[in-house]
Amino acid sequence: MSIFCIALPMGGMRRRDITTFININKPKQKQLQDLVMSFVLRFTYEVAPVFTLMEAVVLERMRHIVGWKDGDGIFSPGGAISNLYGVLTARHYACPDIKQKGLLGKKQLVLFTSEQSHFSILRAASILGIGTDNLVKISCDHRGKMKVAELEEKIIAAKIGGKLPFFVNATCGTTILGAFDPVNDIADVCERHKVWLHVDGAWGGSVLMSKKHRHLLNGIERANSLTWNPHKLLGVPLQCSAFLLREKGIMQQSNEMHADYLFQKDKNYEVIYDTGDKTIQCGRHNDIFKFWLMWRAKGEKGFEAHINRMFELGNYLRELIRKREGFKFVLEKGECTNVCFWYVPLRIREMDDDERKKSELHQATRCIKAMMMENGSLMVGYQPLGEHPNFFRVVISNAAVMEKDLDFLVEEIDRLGRTL
Protein backbone atom coordinates (compact mmCIF):
# COMPACT_ATOMS: atom_id res chain seq x y z
CA MET A 1 0.00 0.00 0.00
CA SER A 2 3.07 2.32 0.05
CA ILE A 3 2.18 3.73 -3.36
CA PHE A 4 -1.07 5.16 -1.95
CA CYS A 5 0.81 6.91 0.85
CA ILE A 6 2.75 8.75 -1.84
CA ALA A 7 -0.21 9.50 -4.11
CA LEU A 8 -3.00 10.39 -1.71
CA PRO A 9 -3.39 13.83 -0.09
CA MET A 10 -1.61 14.47 3.19
CA GLY A 11 -3.57 14.85 6.40
CA GLY A 12 -5.07 11.41 6.72
CA MET A 13 -7.01 8.97 4.56
CA ARG A 14 -10.58 9.92 5.37
CA ARG A 15 -13.05 8.35 2.97
CA ARG A 16 -14.44 11.70 1.83
CA ASP A 17 -10.93 13.03 1.17
CA ILE A 18 -10.08 10.00 -0.94
CA THR A 19 -13.35 10.11 -2.88
CA THR A 20 -12.80 13.80 -3.63
CA PHE A 21 -9.23 13.07 -4.71
CA ILE A 22 -10.36 10.40 -7.17
CA ASN A 23 -12.59 12.98 -8.91
CA ILE A 24 -10.19 15.93 -9.17
CA ASN A 25 -8.98 17.36 -12.47
CA LYS A 26 -6.03 19.62 -11.52
CA PRO A 27 -3.13 18.67 -13.82
CA LYS A 28 -0.49 17.78 -11.20
CA GLN A 29 -2.89 15.90 -8.94
CA LYS A 30 -4.48 14.26 -11.98
CA GLN A 31 -1.13 12.62 -12.75
CA LEU A 32 -1.05 11.15 -9.25
CA GLN A 33 -4.67 10.06 -9.58
CA ASP A 34 -3.84 8.24 -12.80
CA LEU A 35 -0.96 6.55 -11.03
CA VAL A 36 -3.26 5.31 -8.28
CA MET A 37 -6.00 4.16 -10.60
CA SER A 38 -3.94 2.44 -13.27
CA PHE A 39 -0.77 1.08 -11.72
CA VAL A 40 -2.25 -2.39 -11.41
CA LEU A 41 -2.75 -4.80 -14.28
CA ARG A 42 -4.80 -7.43 -12.50
CA PHE A 43 -4.81 -11.03 -13.63
CA THR A 44 -3.58 -12.90 -10.57
CA TYR A 45 -4.12 -12.41 -6.86
CA GLU A 46 -0.39 -11.99 -6.19
CA VAL A 47 -0.14 -9.04 -8.59
CA ALA A 48 -2.97 -7.11 -6.91
CA PRO A 49 -4.24 -8.86 -3.79
CA VAL A 50 -6.10 -5.91 -2.23
CA PHE A 51 -7.93 -4.92 -5.39
CA THR A 52 -8.72 -8.52 -6.26
CA LEU A 53 -10.38 -8.98 -2.87
CA MET A 54 -12.18 -5.63 -3.21
CA GLU A 55 -13.64 -6.79 -6.50
CA ALA A 56 -14.70 -10.16 -5.10
CA VAL A 57 -16.45 -8.57 -2.11
CA VAL A 58 -18.24 -5.90 -4.17
CA LEU A 59 -19.38 -8.39 -6.83
CA GLU A 60 -20.70 -10.70 -4.12
CA ARG A 61 -22.70 -7.84 -2.59
CA MET A 62 -24.05 -6.80 -5.99
CA ARG A 63 -25.22 -10.38 -6.65
CA HIS A 64 -26.89 -10.43 -3.24
CA ILE A 65 -28.75 -7.22 -4.15
CA VAL A 66 -29.90 -8.87 -7.39
CA GLY A 67 -31.21 -11.82 -5.37
CA TRP A 68 -28.61 -14.49 -6.11
CA LYS A 69 -27.07 -16.49 -3.28
CA ASP A 70 -24.10 -17.60 -5.36
CA GLY A 71 -22.70 -16.88 -8.79
CA ASP A 72 -19.82 -15.13 -10.46
CA GLY A 73 -18.85 -11.93 -12.20
CA ILE A 74 -16.17 -9.52 -13.33
CA PHE A 75 -15.70 -5.79 -13.87
CA SER A 76 -15.30 -5.02 -17.56
CA PRO A 77 -14.36 -1.96 -19.66
CA GLY A 78 -18.02 -0.99 -20.18
CA GLY A 79 -21.56 -2.13 -20.80
CA ALA A 80 -20.87 -3.13 -24.39
CA ILE A 81 -18.20 -5.60 -23.22
CA SER A 82 -20.42 -6.83 -20.39
CA ASN A 83 -23.14 -7.53 -22.94
CA LEU A 84 -20.56 -9.32 -25.09
CA TYR A 85 -19.77 -11.51 -22.08
CA GLY A 86 -23.49 -12.28 -21.81
CA VAL A 87 -23.72 -13.55 -25.39
CA LEU A 88 -20.36 -15.36 -25.13
CA THR A 89 -21.34 -17.18 -21.94
CA ALA A 90 -24.77 -18.11 -23.30
CA ARG A 91 -23.15 -19.45 -26.47
CA HIS A 92 -20.90 -21.70 -24.39
CA TYR A 93 -23.86 -22.84 -22.31
CA ALA A 94 -25.77 -23.82 -25.45
CA CYS A 95 -22.76 -25.42 -27.20
CA PRO A 96 -20.05 -26.38 -24.64
CA ASP A 97 -17.63 -27.64 -27.32
CA ILE A 98 -17.81 -24.51 -29.43
CA LYS A 99 -14.54 -23.17 -27.99
CA GLN A 100 -12.64 -26.15 -29.40
CA LYS A 101 -14.64 -27.04 -32.52
CA GLY A 102 -16.06 -23.71 -33.62
CA LEU A 103 -19.41 -23.02 -35.27
CA LEU A 104 -18.99 -25.37 -38.23
CA GLY A 105 -21.50 -28.21 -38.19
CA LYS A 106 -23.67 -26.62 -35.49
CA LYS A 107 -27.27 -25.60 -35.83
CA GLN A 108 -27.57 -21.93 -36.69
CA LEU A 109 -27.56 -20.00 -33.41
CA VAL A 110 -30.19 -17.28 -33.04
CA LEU A 111 -30.46 -14.54 -30.44
CA PHE A 112 -33.29 -12.14 -29.62
CA THR A 113 -33.52 -8.58 -28.36
CA SER A 114 -35.92 -5.67 -28.59
CA GLU A 115 -35.79 -3.14 -31.40
CA GLN A 116 -34.94 -0.45 -28.84
CA SER A 117 -32.06 -2.34 -27.22
CA HIS A 118 -28.44 -1.19 -27.26
CA PHE A 119 -26.46 -1.79 -30.46
CA SER A 120 -23.84 -3.78 -28.52
CA ILE A 121 -26.04 -6.90 -28.74
CA LEU A 122 -25.95 -6.65 -32.52
CA ARG A 123 -22.20 -6.10 -32.43
CA ALA A 124 -21.73 -9.13 -30.16
CA ALA A 125 -23.50 -11.26 -32.78
CA SER A 126 -20.98 -10.00 -35.32
CA ILE A 127 -17.88 -10.43 -33.12
CA LEU A 128 -18.80 -13.96 -32.02
CA GLY A 129 -19.41 -15.26 -35.54
CA ILE A 130 -23.17 -15.69 -35.09
CA GLY A 131 -23.93 -13.05 -37.69
CA THR A 132 -26.07 -9.95 -37.49
CA ASP A 133 -28.71 -11.57 -39.73
CA ASN A 134 -29.28 -14.08 -36.93
CA LEU A 135 -30.22 -11.46 -34.38
CA VAL A 136 -34.02 -11.21 -34.28
CA LYS A 137 -35.36 -7.83 -33.18
CA ILE A 138 -38.66 -7.91 -31.31
CA SER A 139 -41.15 -5.05 -31.60
CA CYS A 140 -41.86 -2.73 -28.69
CA ASP A 141 -45.08 -1.16 -27.48
CA HIS A 142 -45.60 2.61 -27.29
CA ARG A 143 -43.71 2.71 -23.97
CA GLY A 144 -40.62 1.09 -25.50
CA LYS A 145 -41.13 -2.32 -23.84
CA MET A 146 -40.53 -5.60 -25.65
CA LYS A 147 -43.68 -7.42 -26.82
CA VAL A 148 -43.38 -10.75 -25.05
CA ALA A 149 -45.97 -12.60 -27.16
CA GLU A 150 -44.01 -11.72 -30.30
CA LEU A 151 -40.81 -12.92 -28.65
CA GLU A 152 -42.27 -16.36 -28.06
CA GLU A 153 -43.66 -16.52 -31.59
CA LYS A 154 -40.21 -15.74 -33.04
CA ILE A 155 -38.50 -18.33 -30.82
CA ILE A 156 -40.97 -21.01 -31.94
CA ALA A 157 -40.51 -19.98 -35.58
CA ALA A 158 -36.72 -20.29 -35.24
CA LYS A 159 -37.07 -23.79 -33.81
CA ILE A 160 -39.41 -24.85 -36.61
CA GLY A 161 -36.82 -23.51 -39.07
CA GLY A 162 -34.18 -25.83 -37.63
CA LYS A 163 -32.28 -23.10 -35.80
CA LEU A 164 -31.13 -23.00 -32.17
CA PRO A 165 -32.49 -20.09 -30.09
CA PHE A 166 -29.93 -19.66 -27.32
CA PHE A 167 -30.06 -16.09 -25.96
CA VAL A 168 -32.67 -13.47 -25.11
CA ASN A 169 -31.68 -9.97 -24.04
CA ALA A 170 -34.10 -7.99 -21.90
CA THR A 171 -33.26 -4.31 -21.56
CA CYS A 172 -33.87 -2.60 -18.23
CA GLY A 173 -33.45 1.07 -18.95
CA THR A 174 -33.40 1.53 -22.72
CA THR A 175 -31.03 4.17 -24.04
CA ILE A 176 -33.67 6.54 -25.40
CA LEU A 177 -36.94 6.16 -23.46
CA GLY A 178 -35.53 4.50 -20.34
CA ALA A 179 -38.03 1.65 -20.67
CA PHE A 180 -37.83 -1.56 -18.63
CA ASP A 181 -38.69 -4.78 -20.44
CA PRO A 182 -41.00 -7.07 -18.40
CA VAL A 183 -38.37 -9.43 -16.99
CA ASN A 184 -40.78 -11.83 -15.27
CA ASP A 185 -42.81 -12.42 -18.43
CA ILE A 186 -39.68 -12.81 -20.55
CA ALA A 187 -38.24 -15.24 -17.99
CA ASP A 188 -41.37 -17.39 -18.34
CA VAL A 189 -40.75 -17.65 -22.09
CA CYS A 190 -37.04 -18.39 -21.64
CA GLU A 191 -37.73 -21.15 -19.12
CA ARG A 192 -40.32 -22.77 -21.37
CA HIS A 193 -37.88 -22.86 -24.28
CA LYS A 194 -34.65 -23.41 -22.29
CA VAL A 195 -33.05 -20.18 -23.53
CA TRP A 196 -30.47 -18.11 -21.64
CA LEU A 197 -31.90 -14.83 -20.28
CA HIS A 198 -29.50 -11.90 -20.12
CA VAL A 199 -30.60 -8.53 -18.74
CA ASP A 200 -28.89 -5.41 -20.03
CA GLY A 201 -29.27 -3.21 -16.95
CA ALA A 202 -26.32 -1.00 -17.90
CA TRP A 203 -28.51 2.07 -17.45
CA GLY A 204 -31.38 0.95 -15.19
CA GLY A 205 -29.71 -1.75 -13.09
CA SER A 206 -28.82 0.73 -10.36
CA VAL A 207 -32.48 1.14 -9.39
CA LEU A 208 -31.93 -2.13 -7.51
CA MET A 209 -30.38 0.09 -4.83
CA SER A 210 -33.74 1.79 -4.19
CA LYS A 211 -36.57 0.07 -2.32
CA LYS A 212 -38.95 2.54 -3.93
CA HIS A 213 -37.98 1.83 -7.53
CA ARG A 214 -36.49 -1.69 -7.67
CA HIS A 215 -39.92 -3.04 -8.68
CA LEU A 216 -38.98 -1.91 -12.19
CA LEU A 217 -36.71 -4.98 -12.31
CA ASN A 218 -39.17 -7.47 -10.84
CA GLY A 219 -38.02 -10.96 -11.80
CA ILE A 220 -34.35 -10.00 -12.14
CA GLU A 221 -33.33 -12.91 -9.90
CA ARG A 222 -34.58 -15.27 -12.63
CA ALA A 223 -32.06 -13.99 -15.19
CA ASN A 224 -28.93 -15.98 -15.99
CA SER A 225 -26.74 -12.91 -16.33
CA LEU A 226 -26.85 -9.15 -15.86
CA THR A 227 -24.98 -6.10 -17.08
CA TRP A 228 -24.93 -3.31 -14.46
CA ASN A 229 -23.01 -0.05 -14.95
CA PRO A 230 -22.43 1.90 -11.72
CA HIS A 231 -20.80 4.61 -13.85
CA LYS A 232 -24.23 5.56 -15.19
CA LEU A 233 -27.15 6.10 -12.82
CA LEU A 234 -25.04 5.75 -9.64
CA GLY A 235 -22.59 8.40 -10.84
CA VAL A 236 -19.37 6.43 -10.31
CA PRO A 237 -16.55 7.89 -12.48
CA LEU A 238 -15.96 6.16 -15.82
CA GLN A 239 -15.32 3.31 -16.35
CA CYS A 240 -17.18 0.97 -14.03
CA SER A 241 -19.27 -1.87 -15.46
CA ALA A 242 -20.09 -5.20 -13.85
CA PHE A 243 -21.04 -8.44 -15.57
CA LEU A 244 -22.85 -10.69 -13.09
CA LEU A 245 -23.79 -14.37 -13.38
CA ARG A 246 -26.24 -16.49 -11.40
CA GLU A 247 -24.20 -19.66 -11.96
CA LYS A 248 -20.63 -20.11 -10.77
CA GLY A 249 -18.01 -21.65 -13.05
CA ILE A 250 -19.49 -21.13 -16.51
CA MET A 251 -17.57 -17.92 -17.15
CA GLN A 252 -14.31 -19.71 -16.36
CA GLN A 253 -15.28 -22.58 -18.67
CA SER A 254 -16.15 -20.15 -21.47
CA ASN A 255 -12.84 -18.31 -21.48
CA GLU A 256 -10.05 -20.27 -19.81
CA MET A 257 -7.02 -21.16 -21.91
CA HIS A 258 -4.88 -22.74 -19.15
CA ALA A 259 -1.83 -20.55 -19.68
CA ASP A 260 0.27 -22.25 -17.00
CA TYR A 261 3.05 -19.68 -17.20
CA LEU A 262 0.57 -17.24 -15.59
CA PHE A 263 -2.15 -19.29 -13.94
CA GLN A 264 -0.33 -22.05 -12.09
CA LYS A 265 -2.59 -24.30 -10.03
CA ASP A 266 -0.02 -25.13 -7.32
CA LYS A 267 0.38 -21.69 -5.76
CA ASN A 268 0.43 -21.21 -2.02
CA TYR A 269 -2.97 -19.47 -2.02
CA GLU A 270 -6.48 -20.27 -3.24
CA VAL A 271 -6.24 -19.83 -7.03
CA ILE A 272 -9.93 -18.99 -7.42
CA TYR A 273 -8.76 -15.41 -6.86
CA ASP A 274 -6.73 -15.47 -10.10
CA THR A 275 -9.24 -13.80 -12.40
CA GLY A 276 -7.23 -13.50 -15.61
CA ASP A 277 -8.19 -16.85 -17.10
CA LYS A 278 -11.93 -16.27 -16.92
CA THR A 279 -11.93 -13.01 -18.86
CA ILE A 280 -11.42 -12.06 -22.50
CA GLN A 281 -8.69 -9.73 -21.29
CA CYS A 282 -5.61 -10.62 -19.30
CA GLY A 283 -4.61 -7.47 -17.45
CA ARG A 284 -7.46 -5.18 -16.54
CA HIS A 285 -7.80 -1.57 -15.47
CA ASN A 286 -8.31 -0.99 -11.75
CA ASP A 287 -12.01 -0.05 -11.93
CA ILE A 288 -13.05 -1.41 -8.55
CA PHE A 289 -11.15 1.07 -6.36
CA LYS A 290 -13.29 4.13 -7.11
CA PHE A 291 -16.54 2.18 -6.72
CA TRP A 292 -15.42 0.63 -3.45
CA LEU A 293 -14.41 4.06 -2.14
CA MET A 294 -17.74 5.60 -3.11
CA TRP A 295 -19.67 2.71 -1.57
CA ARG A 296 -17.68 3.08 1.67
CA ALA A 297 -18.25 6.85 1.69
CA LYS A 298 -21.96 6.91 0.82
CA GLY A 299 -23.16 3.49 1.93
CA GLU A 300 -26.19 1.75 0.49
CA LYS A 301 -28.47 4.33 2.09
CA GLY A 302 -26.53 7.04 0.29
CA PHE A 303 -26.88 5.21 -3.03
CA GLU A 304 -30.60 4.76 -2.39
CA ALA A 305 -31.01 8.46 -1.62
CA HIS A 306 -29.12 9.29 -4.84
CA ILE A 307 -31.39 7.10 -6.98
CA ASN A 308 -34.54 8.50 -5.37
CA ARG A 309 -33.27 12.04 -5.88
CA MET A 310 -32.61 11.44 -9.59
CA PHE A 311 -36.14 10.14 -10.04
CA GLU A 312 -37.52 13.17 -8.19
CA LEU A 313 -35.61 15.48 -10.53
CA GLY A 314 -36.93 13.57 -13.54
CA ASN A 315 -40.47 14.07 -12.30
CA TYR A 316 -39.74 17.73 -11.59
CA LEU A 317 -38.60 18.24 -15.20
CA ARG A 318 -41.68 16.46 -16.53
CA GLU A 319 -43.89 18.77 -14.48
CA LEU A 320 -42.09 21.85 -15.84
CA ILE A 321 -42.61 20.65 -19.40
CA ARG A 322 -46.23 19.69 -18.76
CA LYS A 323 -47.04 23.24 -17.67
CA ARG A 324 -45.14 25.04 -20.44
CA GLU A 325 -46.84 25.97 -23.70
CA GLY A 326 -45.09 24.74 -26.84
CA PHE A 327 -43.56 21.62 -25.28
CA LYS A 328 -44.78 18.15 -26.16
CA PHE A 329 -43.79 14.79 -24.65
CA VAL A 330 -42.64 11.81 -26.67
CA LEU A 331 -43.63 9.69 -23.67
CA GLU A 332 -45.38 11.62 -20.93
CA LYS A 333 -44.99 9.06 -18.15
CA GLY A 334 -41.49 7.62 -18.38
CA GLU A 335 -40.17 4.87 -16.12
CA CYS A 336 -36.61 6.08 -15.53
CA THR A 337 -34.97 9.52 -15.43
CA ASN A 338 -35.06 9.88 -19.23
CA VAL A 339 -37.26 12.82 -20.27
CA CYS A 340 -37.96 13.00 -24.02
CA PHE A 341 -39.79 15.94 -25.60
CA TRP A 342 -40.14 18.37 -28.50
CA TYR A 343 -40.36 22.10 -28.55
CA VAL A 344 -43.01 22.90 -31.18
CA PRO A 345 -42.71 26.48 -32.48
CA LEU A 346 -46.00 28.34 -33.01
CA ARG A 347 -45.75 28.32 -36.81
CA ILE A 348 -45.50 24.51 -36.76
CA ARG A 349 -48.41 24.17 -34.33
CA GLU A 350 -50.60 26.03 -36.80
CA MET A 351 -49.82 23.71 -39.75
CA ASP A 352 -52.52 21.34 -41.04
CA ASP A 353 -50.31 18.98 -43.04
CA ASP A 354 -49.06 16.29 -40.63
CA GLU A 355 -46.17 15.16 -42.83
CA ARG A 356 -44.93 18.70 -43.31
CA LYS A 357 -45.37 19.35 -39.60
CA LYS A 358 -43.22 16.31 -38.81
CA SER A 359 -40.51 17.41 -41.24
CA GLU A 360 -40.46 20.96 -39.87
CA LEU A 361 -40.34 19.71 -36.29
CA HIS A 362 -37.36 17.51 -37.19
CA GLN A 363 -35.49 20.58 -38.47
CA ALA A 364 -36.61 22.79 -35.58
CA THR A 365 -35.05 20.46 -33.04
CA ARG A 366 -31.78 20.47 -34.96
CA CYS A 367 -31.83 24.28 -35.17
CA ILE A 368 -32.44 24.71 -31.43
CA LYS A 369 -29.61 22.28 -30.72
CA ALA A 370 -27.28 24.20 -33.04
CA MET A 371 -28.13 27.51 -31.35
CA MET A 372 -27.42 25.98 -27.93
CA MET A 373 -23.97 24.91 -29.08
CA GLU A 374 -23.18 28.24 -30.73
CA ASN A 375 -24.25 30.13 -27.60
CA GLY A 376 -22.56 27.64 -25.28
CA SER A 377 -25.66 27.67 -23.13
CA LEU A 378 -26.70 23.99 -23.01
CA MET A 379 -25.58 20.54 -24.07
CA VAL A 380 -28.70 18.44 -24.65
CA GLY A 381 -28.75 15.45 -26.97
CA TYR A 382 -31.41 14.78 -29.58
CA GLN A 383 -32.33 11.76 -31.66
CA PRO A 384 -35.12 10.27 -33.76
CA LEU A 385 -37.00 7.12 -32.72
CA GLY A 386 -38.70 5.06 -35.39
CA GLU A 387 -41.14 7.33 -37.21
CA HIS A 388 -40.72 10.16 -34.70
CA PRO A 389 -38.90 13.31 -35.81
CA ASN A 390 -35.88 14.47 -33.81
CA PHE A 391 -36.62 15.15 -30.15
CA PHE A 392 -34.66 16.20 -27.10
CA ARG A 393 -33.58 13.59 -24.54
CA VAL A 394 -32.56 14.71 -21.07
CA VAL A 395 -31.11 11.95 -18.87
CA ILE A 396 -30.60 12.84 -15.22
CA SER A 397 -27.91 11.00 -13.25
CA ASN A 398 -25.61 13.71 -11.86
CA ALA A 399 -25.87 14.43 -8.13
CA ALA A 400 -24.84 18.05 -8.79
CA VAL A 401 -28.00 18.81 -10.80
CA MET A 402 -30.48 21.12 -9.05
CA GLU A 403 -34.03 22.21 -9.80
CA LYS A 404 -32.73 25.63 -10.90
CA ASP A 405 -30.66 23.90 -13.61
CA LEU A 406 -33.78 22.25 -14.99
CA ASP A 407 -35.65 25.58 -14.80
CA PHE A 408 -32.90 27.13 -16.92
CA LEU A 409 -32.98 24.23 -19.39
CA VAL A 410 -36.70 24.64 -20.08
CA GLU A 411 -36.50 28.43 -20.22
CA GLU A 412 -33.55 28.38 -22.62
CA ILE A 413 -35.18 25.90 -25.02
CA ASP A 414 -38.37 27.98 -24.90
CA ARG A 415 -36.43 31.17 -25.58
CA LEU A 416 -34.54 29.71 -28.53
CA GLY A 417 -37.62 27.96 -29.89
CA ARG A 418 -39.62 31.19 -29.99
CA THR A 419 -37.06 32.65 -32.42
CA LEU A 420 -37.88 30.04 -35.09
UniProtKB/TrEMBL annotation:
Keyword Lyase: yes
GO molecular function: glutamate decarboxylase activity; pyridoxal phosphate binding
Annotated Gene Ontology cellular component terms: cytoplasm
Taxonomic superkingdom: Eukaryota
GO BP terms in the entry: gamma-aminobutyric acid biosynthetic process
Cofactor(s) listed: pyridoxal 5'-phosphate
Modified positions (N6-(pyridoxal phosphate)lysine) in chain numbering: 232
The entry's keywords: Decarboxylase, Lyase, Pyridoxal phosphate
UniProt record similarity statement: Belongs to the group II decarboxylase family.
Protein name, UniProt field: Glutamate decarboxylase 1-like
Native source organism of the sequence: Octopus vulgaris
Organism lineage: Eukaryota, Metazoa, Spiralia, Lophotrochozoa, Mollusca
